[in-house]
Amino acid sequence: MYPDGPDDNGNMFERPGRLTDVLPSPYPNKEAARAANNGAEPPDLTYIVKAREGNENYIFHLLTGNSNYERCVSNNGDIQTETLVRYKN
Questions:
Q1: pLDDT at site 59
Q2: Among 76, 60, 6, which residue's Cα sits nearest to residue 84?
Q3: In this structure, how many other beta carbons lie within 10 angstroms of the beta carbon of residue 65?
Q4: How does pLDDT run along the chain (89 residues), one tens digit per residue?
Q5: H helix or E strand, kind and range, residue 35
Q6: Stated pTM of the model
Q7: Radius of gyration of the chain from its Cα atoms, rounded to whole angstroms
Q8: Do the Cβ atoms of 47 and 58 come closer than 8 Å?
Q9: Structural domain boundaries in the chain
Q10: Phi, psi at residue 41, to the nearest 5°?
């Protein structure tokens, strides 16, 4: 449920989410996010579907571990990142 309002009486209320709603952060602020992720601030994943080749399929394969993608690991200083790259068949 998302906070919304005010209604005709000036009261705030909650409503079901919409596709256009921004995904809320699981952390109260950036410092808490860094503390929970070994000093690295997690990216905003609101528009990740539009930013990756394969759109929704990318997210599905990321979550299910599909073998059509290979895991590439890169080490940039103290932060290690993993990305999935589509096999070129």
A1: 76
A2: 60
A3: 9
A4: 888 999 999 999 999 988 888 877 889 999 999 999 999 888 777 777 777 777 777 777 777 766 555 555 566 666 555 555 555 54
A5: helix 30-36
A6: 0.45
A7: 18
A8: no
A9: 43-89
A10: -80, 125
DSSP conformational letter for 7: -
CB 48 within 8 A of CB 59: yes
Q: Rounded to whole angstroms, how far apart are CA atoms 15 and 8?
A: 15
Beta carbons within 8 Å of 12's beta carbon, 6+ residues apart: 3, 4, 5, 6
- Please say whether the beta carbons of 80 and 74 come within 8 A: yes
Question: What is the residue type of 51?
Answer: A
Q: Does residue 58 come out as left (phi exceeding 0), alpha (psi in the -120 to 50 range) or beta?
A: alpha
Give φ, ψ of 84 to 5 degrees. -105, 130
Only one residue has tokens 């979550």, namely: 63
